[in-house]
């Protein structure tokens, strides 16, 4: 019994020591994952040395509980240390990276590219890799022996794989180049006139004025060695300079701008030098000509490559100092018109021209001082002198503009030669009366005068249209019919001998009639009303005129004579 107790005590001590060793191993594994590393006094001397050999595969037994997901502590088993980085700007660099995992490293990927895969059953707990990087931001992914994945992102120093950008501008014949780079910065801008021999660009610019038809090539390099794309800048020369006119005039102490016409319009350098042949008469600065004293001078525009344009400028005398209108207020009814005048001061001013305008054309318009009242409201009529001075007249328009118009008849029937007058009415009731233009859709049926007088010409239907001065439209349908109540025939009955004829006439109308025989074997009739007796008997001739029917009864008698007997 005592031996058994001693044996039991030894077993308990052995279990205690084994647990201590296991806990120490776990602590060491944490240190590889970036956790807190224990001090040397905390590490038991019984910890066995780590070997890279593959642990035996355990026998798996079913478990009633699900396998737990990876914990942060499990992820921390893998430790990634970047041991070297570039110290100067570059567009790619090879860096040294240390990977550590107590259970073993199975695979390493950088930016989704596999850089290392363990071979066989040997999984190292430490792995040094040299990886060539061509971008600043990288993501490192490590798969350990337990197929646990750890991904970390890093921002590398001094790696710039993006190219700089280059732009240019042209000002006063000078070409200016500019480049930007958001990472390492621009190192140098280069340019060439042949695409082969490049020179460094200076910020003072490149003079393009004397380099016609030259193409410039330029690119830039950043501190990491990345090059921008090469851009081409063509120098299209000026081939002609001209003015719109040969002669201009300007008042003393006034100015105007000359704009030269440059050919071609897409010329690269459009810089113009200006000259006046007599600056005591007029000066020119950047195309702005100012009259100094009365007289004439020649203004010259010169391109950077020597092409010239000339024009003569005449400086006239006194400038306008004021302007007045004959009336400052006017009241008009809708549709009326009224004339005002303008006086330019001084009376001997060189340019006494006046321009008229209205502040509200809907209410009133003006042409050479004649005001036309258009709609109810107020508007200013403005008289403007040649040098921009203004005088105002306030116009008030009363009355109402018509919104609709109609004739007293929508439709009417007329006899031939009958006449009526169509009178338009305007609405609303207080609307001003508009002038009306009349038209007939068929003047051969019904004609209409300028005053709305309609006359029936021949039978038929015509539409009379009225159009007001403010474009209102109304119509009247006119039907023309002849009164045939007094129409008769020259015969209502007639006797004929066989072979004889007569003409049946329609009396009381000029309308065309139609003729028809009831028995063509007895009596025939043609379209002109000529009746011919064919054989003895009786027939009725029916005459139709418009909507009226007339009848003539014709009797054909036998011809008396001797009879022959066989």
Automatic annotation (TrEMBL):
<feature type="region of interest" description="Disordered">
    <location>
        <begin position="35"/>
        <end position="74"/>
    </location>
</feature>
<feature type="domain" description="BIG2">
    <location>
        <begin position="401"/>
        <end position="478"/>
    </location>
</feature>
<dbReference type="InterPro" id="IPR003343">
    <property type="entry name" value="Big_2"/>
</dbReference>
<feature type="domain" description="BIG2">
    <location>
        <begin position="483"/>
        <end position="555"/>
    </location>
</feature>
<feature type="compositionally biased region" description="Pro residues">
    <location>
        <begin position="59"/>
        <end position="69"/>
    </location>
</feature>
<feature type="domain" description="BIG2">
    <location>
        <begin position="237"/>
        <end position="312"/>
    </location>
</feature>
<feature type="signal peptide">
    <location>
        <begin position="1"/>
        <end position="29"/>
    </location>
</feature>
<dbReference type="InterPro" id="IPR008964">
    <property type="entry name" value="Invasin/intimin_cell_adhesion"/>
</dbReference>
<dbReference type="Pfam" id="PF02368">
    <property type="entry name" value="Big_2"/>
</dbReference>
<dbReference type="InterPro" id="IPR058094">
    <property type="entry name" value="Ig-like_OmpL47-like"/>
</dbReference>
<feature type="domain" description="BIG2">
    <location>
        <begin position="319"/>
        <end position="394"/>
    </location>
</feature>
<feature type="compositionally biased region" description="Low complexity">
    <location>
        <begin position="37"/>
        <end position="58"/>
    </location>
</feature>
<protein>
    <recommendedName>
        <fullName>BIG2 domain-containing protein</fullName>
    </recommendedName>
</protein>
<keyword id="KW-0732">Signal</keyword>
């Amino acid at each position: 019994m005592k031996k058994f107790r001693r044996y039991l005590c030894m077993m308990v001590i052995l279990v205690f020591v084994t647990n201590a060793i296991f806990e120490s191993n776990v602590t060491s594994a944490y240190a590889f994952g970036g956790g807190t590393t224990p001090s040397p006094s905390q590490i038991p001397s019984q910890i066995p040395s780590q070997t890279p050999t593959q642990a035996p595969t355990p026998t798996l037994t079913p478990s009633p509980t699900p396998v737990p997901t990876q914990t942060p502590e499990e992820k921390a088993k893998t430790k990634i240390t970047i041991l070297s980085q570039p110290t100067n700007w570059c567009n790619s660099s090879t860096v040294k990276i240390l990977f550590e995992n107590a259970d073993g490293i199975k695979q390493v990927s950088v930016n989704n590219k596999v850089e290392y895969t363990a071979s066989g059953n040997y999984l190292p707990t430490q792995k040094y890799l040299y990886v060539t990087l061509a971008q600043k931001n990288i993501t490192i992914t490590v798969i350990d022996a337990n197929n646990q994945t750890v991904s970390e992102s890093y921002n590398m120093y001094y790696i710039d794989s993006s190219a700089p950008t280059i732009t240019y501008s042209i000002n006063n014949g000078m070409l200016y180049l500019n480049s930007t780079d958001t990472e390492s910065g621009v190192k140098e801008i280069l340019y060439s006139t042949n695409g082969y021999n490049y020179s460094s660009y200076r910020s003072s610019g490149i003079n393009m004025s004397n380099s016609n038809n030259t193409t410039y090539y330029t690119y830039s390099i950043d501190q990491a060695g990345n090059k921008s794309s090469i851009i081409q800048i063509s120098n299209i020369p000026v081939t002609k300079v001209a003015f719109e006119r040969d002669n201009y005039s300007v008042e003393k102490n006034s100015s105007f701008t000359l704009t030269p016409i440059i050919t071609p319009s897409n010329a690269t350098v459009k810089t113009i030098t200006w000259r006046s042949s007599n600056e005591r008469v007029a000066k020119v600065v950047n195309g702005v000509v100012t009259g100094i004293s009365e007289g004439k001078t020649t203004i010259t525009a010169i391109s950077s490559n020597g092409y010239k344009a000339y024009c003569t400028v005449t400086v006239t005398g006194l400038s306008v100092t004021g302007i007045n209108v004959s009336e400052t207020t006017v009241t008009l009814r809708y549709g009326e018109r009224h004339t005002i005048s303008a006086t330019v001061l001084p009376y001997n001013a060189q340019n006494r021209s006046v321009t008229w305008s209205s502040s509200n054309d809907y209410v009133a318009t003006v042409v050479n001082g004649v005001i036309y009242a258009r709609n109810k409201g107020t508007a200013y009529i403005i008289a403007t002198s040649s040098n921009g001075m203004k005088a105002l007249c306030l116009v008030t328009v009363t009355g109402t503009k018509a919104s609709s118009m109609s004739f007293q008849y929508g439709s009417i029937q007329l006899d031939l030669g009958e006449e009526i007058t169509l009178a338009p009415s305007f609405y609303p009731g207080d609307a001003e009366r508009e002038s009306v233009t009349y038209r007939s859709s068929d003047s051969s049926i019904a004609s209409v005068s300028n005053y709305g007088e309609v006359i029936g010409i021949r039978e038929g239907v015509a539409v009379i249209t009225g159009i007001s001065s403010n474009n209102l439209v109304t119509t009247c349908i006119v039907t023309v019919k002849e009164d045939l109540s007094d129409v008769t025939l020259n015969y209502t009955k007639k006797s004929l001998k066989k072979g004889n004829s007569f003409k049946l006439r329609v009396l009381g109308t000029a309308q065309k009639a139609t003729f028809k025989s009831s028995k063509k074997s007895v009596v025939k009739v043609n379209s002109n009303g000529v009746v011919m007796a064919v054989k003895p008997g009786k027939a009725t001739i029916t005459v139709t005129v418009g909507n009226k029917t007339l009848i003539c009864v014709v009797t054909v008698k036998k011809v008396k004579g001797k009879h022959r007997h066989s």
